[in-house]
Amino acid sequence: MKTGRCLYRYIILSYGDNGMKNHIERSNAYLHRRRFLKSGAAGILGCLSADAHGAVKKSAAAFDLAGGNYHYLSSEQKNIHNRWNKDIPPALKIRSGDMVTIETRDASDWHFTPDSTVADIVTRDTSKTHPITGPIYVDEAVPGDVLKIDILDFELSDWGWSATGKGKGLLPDLLSESYLKIWTYDAKKQYAELKDGVRVKLDPFCGVMGVAWEETGEFRTIPPRKNGGNMDIRHLTAGTTLYLPVFVNGALFSAGDAHAAQGDGEVAVSAIETDLAVTARFTVLKGASIAEPRYESDEYYATTGFGTTILEASQKATRYMVGHLSETYGLDPVEAYSLCSMAMDLKICETVDMPHYLVSAHIPKDVFV
Fold it and tell me: Cα–Cα distance between 163 and 299 in angstroms, integer?
């Protein structure tokens, strides 16, 4: 079978002979649903066909390359790290306008499997939390620029997990014991069932997306920061554009902590954690400096603020929005501030990495006619 031959070749190249057996055993279903694309301008491996559920896989030809090149970055170990560090060598070098499909691992770095039980929580090595794929060096990016990331597509694995317990999340005193849920998805990937009669709509995104910052050393990905990181913004789905400030040459972008579904705040400390592949286009914006990440869709524009309290994060996000409205639409500060009170929504994106919080401010675009 043509697809099978491509699958075998891909695993050998990515994981080696010894790793092939283990990788198949831990997530065979995912491998059969994964997009297999070869790096390069054409970006098409030529072995795409219907998967086990009959869904036709997308290729790079499904996207408008818009004059850029196409690349594929796998989640093999040499492309994985879980600290922000500007001295990590790039896993991939691209130019502004290029498109990349990035494979990511789940937040446990493959500790959990579809057969895991609650007993596996205590054996997890939390120092491996948040494996992120990258970094990606964008040639034209220099400090003071903005990296624009058009999020084009996500492809989920077939399963995910959620865990919580005593001392976890926004209500650390609520539970007395640990909890692990292994989720399997509807064949058409529309929802996952918590139990009979209770289901969650799937809306995948990456909880961690960010760039290296200027400080020397290693920094955990867990808190959100000015460089992005663990923002857990559930609105960063396909069709959304993310803007990140650039602090080092090449920006050094990485992504991971994939979620199949999550509510604002991720209050119980985990979403539906999963593997996925994200396809995005990267563009360097010159002379467009921003202090913290922003994002937009066809329906709204959003600013973000991080802080050690919800108040501080909310104030920063609102202040950035007032500035955006003044600079973009020529409103006086008092007009912009008043408009925020009438039309802007504050959304609590990140609550569980205390004392680090992230709030986003959304303004609908249809207020401007």
Answer: 33
pLDDT score, position 43: 33
Assess contact for 45 and 19: CB atoms under 8 A: no
In CATH terms, is domain 58-285 a member of 2.60.120.580?
A: yes
Q: Please provide the average confidence, as pLDDT, over all residues in the chain.
A: 85
247: left (phi over 0), alpha (psi -120 to 50) or beta: alpha
CB atoms within 10 A of CB 49: 11
Q: Cβ of 331: how many Cβ atoms within 10 Å?
A: 16
CA distance 4 to 124: 33
For 19, the token pair is: 């790793």
The Cα–Cα gap between 199 and 7 comes to 32
Give residue for tokens 């066809």: 298
From the CB of residue 105, how many other CB atoms can be counted at a distance below 10 Å?
A: 23
Q: For residue range 300-331, list pLDDT tens digits in order.
A: 999 999 999 999 999 999 999 999 999 999 99
Measured CA distances, 18 to 7, 12, 13, 21 (Å): 16, 9, 11, 7
Provide the sign of the torsion angle of the four alpha carbons 44, 45, 49, 55, taken in this order.
negative
Gap between the Cα atoms of 252 and 89, Å rounded: 9
Query: pLDDT by residue (tens digit) across 105-152?
Result: 999 999 999 999 999 999 999 999 999 999 999 999 999 999 999 999
Q: Is the distance from CB of 240 to CB of 206 less than 8 angstroms?
A: no
Assign domain 298-367 to its CATH architecture: Roll (3.10)
Rg (CA), the chain: 20
Q: What is the pLDDT of residue 32?
A: 36
Q: Give the start-to-end residue ranges of the domains of the chain.
A: 58-285, 298-367
- The torsion angle over the Cα atoms of residues 106, 113, 264 and 195, rounded to 10 degrees, is 160
